[in-house]
Amino acid sequence: MQVPLSILLIPFGIMFFVSFVFFIVNIFHISRYGLQSTKTTAIIGAYLVGFFVTVLISGALLFRYDWSRTIDLGSFEFTGDIHNLKDL
């Protein structure tokens, strides 16, 4: 059975959407209900930078692969030694 490799991006997309919603809710709550000070602004800035750096790194790692390829689910047979998995 041939399955497109891009099907693996669906869980990633769902998790990205959930984390983005979580990110927006956190920024809203920190800016709306947090103490208005320089430290709060610094925390929001650090959170923004951290989130976008994580998105950029994960995007750079994902763009290295050809997601248009297909995989054969019937071809996953392990014929090697179970103790030498690091050589695979």
Structural class: mainly alpha
* Strand residue percentage: 5-15%
- Euclidean distance between termini CA atoms: 23 Å
Biggest pleated sheet? 2 strands, antiparallel
Q: Can you list the strand order of the major beta sheet? A: 1-2
Instruction: Please give the oligomerization state of what you see.
Output: single chain
Question: How would you characterize the overall build of this protein?
Answer:
The protein has 88 residues and is mainly α. The protein has one domain (2-76). Helices cover 57% and strands 7% of the residues. It has helices at 9-33, 38-62, and strands at 2-4, 70-72. The protein has a two-stranded antiparallel ribbon with strand order 1-2.
Brief rundown of the structure:
With 88 residues, the protein is mostly helical.
What keywords describe this structure?
elongated; 7% strand; 88 residues
